[in-house]
Design a protein that fits this description.
By secondary structure, this protein is an alpha+beta fold. The chain is 28% helix and 17% strand. The chain is built from 5 helices and 8 strands. Helix 1 (22-31) runs parallel beside helix 2 (48-59).
Length: 155
């Protein structure tokens, strides 16, 4: 077993900037759809899931510019209903996060099946991990009507 052996006697000082967290960044990125005003997010982790979400947002017409390293300005002024790239949606489970903001702002979205490490599926809408409510159940409880056809959910 590995261990750290720390010999004290010297006070620690300095600064540490923690890296960004994709599980915080992904919902924030999709929430930017809800306004047409510019939003600046800092400490964005430049990892695969986040970069794929950027591609999905840009395909909807969201303008994203890097203002400085790990900081993005997001502006969802001229969003268009577009066919989301199924390959991009299959790369990340988080593509389902587009449903809420798009339904909130435009009242509809066609969402190809999300990917990622799927725990289970029900009619192409992923089921949450054990102990939480399924996303299908959540959509029904919030009054969203949807249909699944050709591998995509239309809400």
């Amino acid at each position: 077993m590995e261990s750290f052996i720390i010999t004290g006697g010297k006070p620690l000082n300095g600064e540490v900037i923690p890296s960004g967290n994709k599980n915080a960044a992904l919902p924030l990125l999709t929430a930017c759809i809800l306004t047409d005003e510019p939003v600046i997010l800092h400490n964005i982790p430049l990892i695969g899931d986040v970069l794929t979400m950027r591609l999905l947002l840009e395909s909807l017409g969201v303008e994203i510019t890097e203002t400085e390293p790990h900081s993005w300005q997001i502006r969802a002024r001229d969003i268009r209903m577009a066919d989301l790239n199924p390959e991009h949606c299959r790369r990340i489970r988080a593509s389902i996060l587009l449903a809420g903001p798009m339904l909130g702002r435009y009242g509809e979205i066609e969402l190809p099946p999300p990917g990622g490490d799927v725990i289970g599926r029900e009619e192409s809408i992923p089921i949450s991990r054990p102990g939480s409510h399924g996303r299908r159940d959540y959509l029904q409880r919030t009054g969203v009507q949807y249909a699944c056809a050709k591998g995509a959910a239309r809400c």
